[in-house]
């Protein structure tokens, strides 16, 4: 009986240890900052695709149709930047920039993450 109890306790300890080891990579991936997540979305050709039109530090093959995104955090508040990305045609009806929020190209969460990244530039 004691041997069975000891065996069960050992097995439970092993299962607990293995369970915690498999959770480690998940918690590490969740440690990615909002700025890093926003950068991933902004550089993603199927999502933000900011590099299609803008030069952004760290981006490859940038476009030159839109202005370079340099010093944005000094020129825009986060709220103004979000409004611009949500629908640039409100400020400039002739803007070629797609209304990422109004047309639901980005979700509200994705838009907030992109704003966090762009505001650091």
Query: How far apart, in Å, are the first and last alpha carbons?
Result: 66 Å
Radius of gyration over all CA atoms, rounded: 23 Å
Let me know the largest β-sheet: none
Could you report the average pLDDT, rounded to the nearest whole number?
82
Q: How many extended strands?
A: 0
Query: Which structural class matches the secondary elements?
Result: mainly alpha
- Going by CATH, the architecture of the largest domain would be Orthogonal Bundle
Fraction of residues in H or I helices? 40-55%
Q: What's the CATH C level of the largest domain? A: Mainly Alpha
Unreliable parts? 20-28
CATH topology descriptor of the largest domain: Cytochrome Bc1 Complex, Chain D, domain 2
Percent of residues in beta strands? under 5%
What count of domains describes the coordinates? Answer: 2
* The CATH fourth-level homologous superfamily of the largest domain: Cytochrome c-like domain
